[in-house]
Each structure stands twice: as structure tokens, then as C-alpha cells.
């Protein structure tokens, strides 16, 4: 996708009444050569850099949508000629709902995180829980079975000869039935099992689907398919509790997570889903289906690990999951209660995690030391371990969103907490500077900042800490 932008000078008061180009964007996507079929036009006021930034971020997610042109409109003196403009945005999209959703988003940045953003996400972004097995009737009477996330778009592709070689040579095709599932694996499993049936068996199931959903028919009648899998159970539970406003709130908080992977399910519901998963006989199938597609699936996975009571099994689950952790929220969500059962063994694991070289595994190891070994089990060498636990090649000031940043932030948190729970051991790490420093300067200052924000440190101690900045 390429983008070309030209900007004209802001019009003066007289020129604000004239029709002249303000900004022009041109997008090209080599993967979509066919011209879009639908256009939508909208008028937008108060466009500024933040709105364009939001727009560009969304357009990158939509290979089927482009902006045809953006022109100024005659505003008739309704606005002052200072920064805001009224412009006409012509949106081209393959589907009317996507064009309409994009039009709604452009109406204003202040509503983008509420109902308008919700409408945009429903219409424009690929729904993460929409997975279908579909059945087509071909021109010669044969059946074609496939998988899709958008059945109507896929049907159009088949009808235009671009869907598959078989349907192209056996046209025309029409949709007979479709079964909706919540995970790709479940939909593709249905497709594979359905293809193994004889024509007579297929016709029998399709006849039943005229009176009840095909997915229900397949669960009851398709040999070898059976009830929902653990993965399908988790995805179905998440899909039923999506909150777009909560998703908009969470996305800036976990910048290392692709926004398309975060759908917005609150922690209370994630805990309920994890409990339901843990009670399933096939829970291990979900646990081993790594990497997960969604941020919330990782959260459920982390919470489910915390329900394991057998120490050896828990260590196995931590080691399996930690390499796939890609954000601080999932890392810090991982419970550690079971690790307290065998402190000596846990310390061996903590050393291994802290030397792994994987940023969030290192962060988890430091967090385990902080949560389990800062009270009665504390030893001064633990503070020295944390002080030495930096990512290889860490700069003096780690870049935000880098592995070094999230490791050093956890190190700072450890020493801020240690100032409360083990002050005698922790004070030298924040006091000493320059040649005598026990901590790198960035982490030392962050530890002081966090400690000064704590309500568990006295006013006198905070004044002393500020003098060490």
C-alpha cells in the first residue's frame, strides 16, 4: 500500500467560501486489482493530524477499502478559516457496510471510541469469531465444500470464477448451506469431516439444515465431529462478551499487541471462562494450541495455569506458555501461588527464566521473585540478581515498547517494592550513583519515582528519595 499526501495552505477568510482541494490521498494495493463496486461520500469537519492518523491506521487494516479523493466543500461561512475544514471524503469499498462504517468513523474523532468505533469494527474489520463451513451446489449437480470468514464474499469469488478451479469449471454455483463456528480449527474440522461423507449422507444433513442451524446438525450427526472442542468453547465464550468500548480502552495500554488481536473482554469474564476451561476434560487441547490468535485467549490461558495445583504440572505449563507471552498484561496476569509450594525448586526456575533472553520471560522471573521472595524468604542476593538482570545490549534509556523497557520497568518495580518490604537491603540500590552505582541510572530513577508514588512509604522517606534523583 502506498500513500501520497499533498497539503495546501489554509485558506483565508474569503477563500474559505470557495471550493478548492485541501488534501489528496492516493492508495494503491497490489493485492486488490479489481475496482471496488461501492462508493460512499461524507462531509467531515475539524479534520486534523490525529484524525488522519486514526484513519490511516484503520485503512491499513482494510485491503478492500480505499479513499478515492478528499476535497473541500463550500462552507458558506459556517466555520472560521482556522485549521478545521469541511471536506468531502469519497470512500470506495467492496461492500456497502464497510463503506458506511468508514463514513461513520470519519464523522469525528471524539466518537471514534464509542458507538461509531464499534460500528466501524463490526463492519470493517474481519470479525475474529466468524468462521464458516459452506456448501455450494454446482452447475452439474455436484457439491463443493469450503471454509471462509465471509461467506458472501467467498460466494461472489466463486461465481466470478476466482474462488477455486473446481467451481470455475462447474459453474454456475449457488449457496446451499453454511455452518458458523467461533474458531478456524473447528470450522476446518467440520469441512474435513463433511467431505468424507457419501453424497447420500451429505444430502441427509443438508435437508435437516433447512429446519435447524447446520452447525447444530453437524454436532449431533456428523461422524467423528462431536461436541465443541476446548478452543471452540473459549472462543464462543469470548465472542458472547465482547465490549468494543473496553477494547478501545485497552488497546493503548498494551501497545505491543496488534490491535486486531484485542477484542475487549473484561477480566471478570475471562476468569469465568478460565474456570470453565479448567473443568473440561480436553482443557489440555487449548493449552497446547499455541500460539493463540487473540490477546484474550492468552489471558484465559494465563488464568487457567493459575488454577493448576500440581507443582510439576504447573512448571511444565509455565515453560510451555512463557515463550509466547508478548505483552506486560499477560505476563503480570500469570498467578504464582503454586510456585510457593517448593521455594528451592522455584528459585532454580526463576534463575532459568531470568537468563532466558526472552523479555517477558525475564520479566515474569523478576515478578516471581518480587511476589514470593521479598518477605520471610528474602535474601540479599535476590536483589543483586534483579540488579544484574538486564536484556543483552540494553541502552542507557530503553526505547518504549522494547523488551529492555519492560524488563527494566519490572526491575524498577521490584526495588520500589523492596524499599517497603526490605528497606535495609534496598536503600543502597537507590542511594548510590555514578561509579558506586549498583543499578543503571534509568532503572534507579524509575524505582525512586515509583516509590515516591507509593502510599506505603513515609513522607520523610520520600523526601530522602527525592534528594537522590
From TrEMBL:
Pfam families linked to this entry: DNA_alkylation (PF08713), GIY-YIG (PF01541)
Residues of the GIY-YIG domain: 129-204
Protein family membership: Belongs to the UPF0213 family.
Name of the featured protein: GIY-YIG nuclease superfamily protein
Organism, as annotated: Collinsella intestinalis
Amino acid at each position: 500500500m502506498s500513500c501520497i499526501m499533498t497539503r495546501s495552505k489554509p485558506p483565508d477568510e474569503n477563500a474559505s467560501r470557495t471550493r478548492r482541494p485541501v488534501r489528496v490521498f492516493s492508495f494503491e494495493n497490489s493485492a486488490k486489482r479489481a475496482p471496488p463496486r461501492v462508493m460512499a461520500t461524507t462531509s467531515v469537519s475539524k479534520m486534523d493530524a490525529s484524525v488522519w492518523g486514526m484513519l490511516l491506521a484503520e485503512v491499513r487494516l482494510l485491503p478492500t477499502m480505499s479513499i478515492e479523493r478528499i476535497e473541500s466543500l463550500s462552507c458558506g461561512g459556517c466555520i472560521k478559516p482556522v485549521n478545521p475544514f469541511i471536506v468531502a471524503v469519497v470512500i470506495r469499498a467492496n461492500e456497502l457496510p464497510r463503506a458506511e462504517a468508514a463514513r461513520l468513523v470519519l464523522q469525528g474523532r471524539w466518537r471514534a471510541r464509542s458507538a461509531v468505533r464499534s460500528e466501524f469494527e463490526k463492519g470493517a474489520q474481519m470479525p475474529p469469531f466468524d468462521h464458516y463451513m459452506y456448501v455450494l451446489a454446482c452447475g452439474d449437480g455436484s457439491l463443493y465444500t469450503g471454509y471462509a470468514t465471509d461467506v458472501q464474499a467467498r460466494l461472489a469469488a466463486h461465481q466470478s470464477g476466482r474462488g477455486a478451479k473446481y467451481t470455475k469449471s462447474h459453474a454456475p454455483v449457488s449457496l446451499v448451506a453454511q455452518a458458523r463456528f467461533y474458531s478456524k480449527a473447528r470450522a476446518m474440522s467440520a469441512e474435513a469431516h463433511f467431505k468424507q461423507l457419501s453424497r447420500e449422507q451429505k444430502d441427509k444433513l443438508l435437508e435437516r439444515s433447512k429446519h435447524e442451524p447446520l452447525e447444530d446438525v453437524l454436532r449431533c450427526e456428523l461422524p467423528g465431529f462431536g461436541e465443541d472442542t476446548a478452543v471452540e468453547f473459549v472462543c464462543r465464550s469470548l465472542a458472547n462478551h465482547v465490549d468494543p468500548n473496553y477494547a478501545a480502552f485497552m488497546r493503548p495500554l498494551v501497545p505491543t499487541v496488534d490491535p486486531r488481536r484485542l477484542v475487549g473482554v473484561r477480566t471478570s469474564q475471562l476468569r469465568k471462562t478460565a474456570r470453565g476451561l479448567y473443568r473440561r476434560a480436553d482443557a489440555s487441547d487449548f493449552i497446547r494450541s499455541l500460539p493463540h490468535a487473540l490477546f484474550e485467549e492468552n489471558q484465559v490461558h494465563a488464568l487457567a495455569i493459575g488454577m493448576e495445583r500440581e507443582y510439576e504440572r504447573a512448571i511444565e505449563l509455565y515453560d510451555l506458555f512463557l515463550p509466547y507471552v508478548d505483552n506486560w498484561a499477560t505476563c503480570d496476569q500469570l498467578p504464582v501461588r503454586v510456585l510457593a509450594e517448593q521455594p528451592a525448586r522455584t528459585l532454580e526456575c526463576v534463575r532459568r527464566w531470568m537468563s532466558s533472553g526472552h523479555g517477558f520471560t525475564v520479566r515474569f522471573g523478576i515478578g516471581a521473585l518480587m511476589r514470593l521472595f521479598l518477605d520471610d524468604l528474602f535474601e540479599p542476593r535476590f536483589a543483586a540478581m534483579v540488579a544484574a538482570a538486564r536484556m543483552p545490549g540494553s541502552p542507557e534509556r530503553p526505547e518504549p515498547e522494547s523488551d529492555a523497557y519492560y524488563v527494566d520497568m519490572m526491575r524498577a518495580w521490584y526495588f520500589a517494592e523492596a524499599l517497603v518490604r526490605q528497606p535495609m537491603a534496598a536503600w543502597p540500590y537507590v542511594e548510590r550513583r555514578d561509579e558506586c552505582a549498583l543499578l543503571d541510572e534509568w532503572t534507579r530513577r524509575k524505582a525512586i519515582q515509583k516509590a515516591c508514588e507509593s502510599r506505603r512509604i513515609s513522607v520523610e522517606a520520600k523526601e530522602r528519595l527525592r534528594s537522590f534523583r
